[in-house]
Amino acid sequence: MGDPVVxxxxxxxxxxxxxxxxxxxxxxxxxPLIQRFTTVPSPYTREDAETFVSLVGEWWESGDEYVWAxxxxxxxxxxxxxxxxxxxxxxxxxxxxxxxRGRGYMxxxxxxxxxxxxxxxxxxxxxWHAVVGNTASAAVAQRLGFRLEGVRRRGLAGHGPRxxxxxxxxxxxxxxxxxxxxxxx
Length: 185
What we know:
By secondary structure, the chain is of the alpha+beta class.
């Protein structure tokens, strides 16, 4: 694809993170929950934020990954992305600043990215992965219509020993309605 795509929702603008966002990304990623439940480095440094912004530009150019900053009236509120785009599939990943939680932002942003994935990108499948116990992330995936597929034992690399991870999938022709999950763990 190459050129970053801007997506507008009713309350958010999703656009590629840029150098001016580095400080906000650094500050948001100091949140212990983001460090515990995502793949961001821990501890998270300003250099990590600078590297991330630089990599996002490269990913957009190559078409391997598309990452958007969620922007509300206060600025950067989180990130959402399509990772490891290949052979008609990708992984949906996201994190949200503590100040922005509880407003439905992630569901709104992720739904727009899912629509983009199955629309213009013509993907057939999206996967969602989360560390067992990340019920907030699971709630978003459930609302998007993802189907829980199970637990990948020691399936995720963390900031120490490998950890168990939930996996769910969403196909392009699946209904995008809330699904009920019995979360194993």
